[in-house]
Amino acid sequence: MLDTIDLFIKVNRYNTFHEAAVKLNIPLATLQRRIKKLEDNLALALFYRERGCLRLTEPGKQFYTQCLSPVENLQNVLDNFKGHSHNKKGSIKLIAPQNFMKSEFVNGLFKDFSHRFPEIKIHMVLSDERLDLKNTEFDLAVRIGKLVNSQNICKVINRMDFVLAAAPELIAELGSPNTFTDLAKLPHITFTPFKNWKFLDHDGQYCVFHPEPNFIANDFEMCALAALEGRGVYYGPLLYLKKHLKNGELITLLNDFQPIKRDINLIWPDKLIPHSTRLLIDYLSEKLSEPYI
């Protein structure tokens, strides 16, 4: 509840929910859901929803005035304790995609975190199948891709570049595609969570290709290996294919179409969280926001 009241105070600084979501780096649907939940708990409307304008109702003004000073004082108390707490302890259950956590991008991050905070223990649950967070106990999760509305707090910390590529030998044999119709005639390799291949065309229009895969795997590296062997066209993260593109083992296709980038998200329960979890959130938000390509 305190986190939601703090969010309410911050939202009031902006002209619209959309602007607040962008500035606070929170998905719009999550922000609106949390404000609506607060209003439901209070049984009153805090904001007038007007096109292009967000302003407090009279009860909202009273609630804002009465909450502002206590919340700021509480934040100062928390900051003071954080500043004097040198013995940080705790155990964090982290759920994350196995492929992503094994990548060069993440390599060494948790060793550095453990060196900084040796008293904080991390229990990792790695899976490339999306666990149902509604029915799973966790402290923090990493998710790749667009998220559906949830009861958790979500924060986009980076975006992952994708690429459409194939072995030059395959293209020499079957021909280079210029359209999705041409692409449909080639063999396809798919990574199971990404069943549809999403692009922007040269006009910025969103388009989706539905592959009929000849090879399916739930491991990025296995899919990349299949592409290197000439078994099909692969749509996957540039992170795993960059070195093969650089040395000519793979080539990009349909260059008039830009593969859609996928969000890298941090997710945690919508409640007051332990200081140890906040430390990991801040650390990953900083480290995983760095350019990796």
UniProtKB/TrEMBL annotation:
Pfam families: HTH_1 (PF00126), LysR_substrate (PF03466)
Top-level division of the source organism's lineage: Bacteria
UniProt cross-references to InterPro entries, sorted A to Z: LysR-type_TF_proteobact-type, LysR_HTH_N, LysR_subst-bd, WH-like_DNA-bd_sf, WH_DNA-bd_sf
GO BP terms in the entry: DNA-templated transcription
UniProt domain HTH lysR-type: residue ranges: 1-57
Transcription is among the record's keywords: yes
GO terms, molecular function: DNA-binding transcription factor activity; sequence-specific DNA binding
Keywords: DNA-binding, Transcription, Transcription regulation
CDD domains in the cross-refs: PBP2_CrgA_like (cd08422)
Family statement: Belongs to the LysR transcriptional regulatory family.
Full protein name: Regulatory helix-turn-helix protein, lysR family
Organism of this sequence: Pseudoalteromonas denitrificans DSM 6059
